[in-house]
Amino acid sequence: MRRIIYSACILISVLSCNTKSEPSSSEKKDSKAADTTSYPYKATYSSDITVPGRADYAKTVLTVWKMFETMQIDAMKQYYADTVTYEDASGMYFHGSSADLLKFAGDDIKDLDSLRFDISTWQSVHINDRNEDWVYIWAAERRYEKGGKADTTLIQEQWKVENNKVSYFNRYYSKLPKKH
């Protein structure tokens, strides 16, 4: 009986040494194949992007959105760098202290009865050749003016996060398409 158990152990050891194992998911992720596709355009910023990026940065940006939606403007300060840049599709450009940005944000929503975001999707990405982290968000924004009616806008924003703080964001928007 001992011989059978001993022989079985040796056989298992030999087989386990000669069996090729499947690479782990982290090993598969690290062995990124080079993109050899010839595109008709060259990206002006970057096309060397890793998706997904940092989930904690996506959570930070979504937390800021929730605070804005629930009008907790002062609580947002901890998530911003000392100096922030904001640009929107109307041509508005802000570059200054986070305190001034938050004052601007407060003024933006002070006449609202309420605000709601219906977020379609978000994506965190890492720009490899620039070593930058970004969070992209697509949503519908519903603003309810005091004593007025709701106004809905489709929005897309890009948020740059550096050292765990938002340093830049921009906004693109459009009105809802009319159904015919």
Record the SSE blueprint.
Layout: H1 2-18, H2 25-30, E1 49-50, H3 55-69, E2 80-88, E3 93-97, H4 98-109, E4 112-127, E5 132-145, E6 150-162, E7 165-175
Structural overview:
The chain is α+β, with helices and mostly antiparallel strands. The protein has one domain: Nuclear Transport Factor 2, Chain: A (Roll). The protein is built from four helices and seven strands. It has a seven-stranded mixed β-sheet with strand order 1-4-5-6-7-2-3, with helices on one face. A hairpin with a 4-residue loop joins strand 5 and strand 6. It is globular and about 55 Å long. The termini are far apart. The N terminus is likely disordered.
Features:
Nuclear Transport Factor 2, Chain: A; disordered N terminus; single chain; 7 strands; 180 residues; seven-stranded mixed sheet; alpha+beta; 4 helices
